[in-house]
Amino acid sequence: MAQGELTASAYIKHHLQNLTFGQHPDGTWGIAHGAEQAKEMGFWAFHIDTLGFSFVLGALFLFIFAKAAKRATIDAPSGFQNFVESVIDFIDENVRGSFKGKNPMVAPLALTTFIWIILMNTMDLVPVDWLPYAAQLMGVDYLKVVPTTDPNATFGMALGIFLLILFFSIKEKGLGGFVGELTLHPFGKWMLPFNLFLEGVNLLAKPVSLALRLFGNMYAGEMIFILIALLPWYAQWALSLPWAIFHILIVLLQAFIFMTLVIVYMDMAHQKEH
């Protein structure tokens, strides 16, 4: 989309609008043409762009690592194999350093969240107009290409981790032990309501912190790219490259923080004395 076709406010709103599918007030299902229609669709509307890019990038992750595993060799490893092995070693070191329990699922979970989030975050480095403009040429009015700038995606991942925390907390400690942890810690049975409030807030804060930290940082980064795109072309060239280089650090750092918190939270779920 050409910058001059919209006012600055309309340009920003356009780039922040998801491609939404849901039920219209008249009962029919279809694509929302604008923020108002998307709002009318309510909670059960689907963000097609977020789901689509998340699925494609997840499939890309599986394809790359499966390809590396099939071509793995001891005699003469390729540079690609060395890269994948270095990533796996990096994840393994973090899991060994932060996770004291025994669960073979934790390392693959950490690897999946780390690489998947990196791939989704990296979409923020694609120039903001390229893919939306290509989508417009195909008749698609709205397209957000960074899944992690959609709170539905980050909360979806965080809730998935939260369910695993609950599952392994009950599995490792027993239902009674898990309930006791929530009600008797840290001040004993005489402060049960206060204990439940403190531990309940602490438990619910885990998925919220996972989701909001990732969403907030990536959304802010995307907003800066959009604001830079509103500037004259010479200012865009002067600002976009330095910000993109700095944003690479944010892309990697947010994925690392999410992965680290997943490992730590899973470790807490496995600690019977916690």
Write a brief caption for the model.
The chain has 274 residues and is mostly helical. Helices cover 70% and strands 3% of the residues.
Give structural attributes:
mainly alpha
Low-confidence segments, given as residue ranges, are: none
Kindly report the average pLDDT value: 93
Radius of gyration: 22 Å
Residue share in helices?
Answer: over 70%
Number of domains: 1
Based on secondary structure, the structural category is: mainly alpha
Envelope shape: globular
Termini, distance in Å? 54 Å
Helices and strands, with pairings:
Elements (H helix, E strand, L loop, with lengths): L7 H8 L4 E4 L5 E3 L3 H6 L5 E2 H23 L8 H20 L7 H17 L7 H8 L13 H34 L7 H38 L3 H38 L4
Antiparallel strand pairs: 1-2, 1-3
Helix pairs in contact: 3-5, 4-5, 5-9, 7-8, 7-9, 8-9
What do these coordinates show?
With 274 residues, the protein is mostly helical. It has one domain (50-128, 146-270). It contains 9 helices and 3 strands. It has a 3-stranded antiparallel beta sheet with strand order 2-1-3. A hairpin with a 5-residue loop joins strand 1 and strand 2. The model has no long low-confidence stretch (mean pLDDT 93).
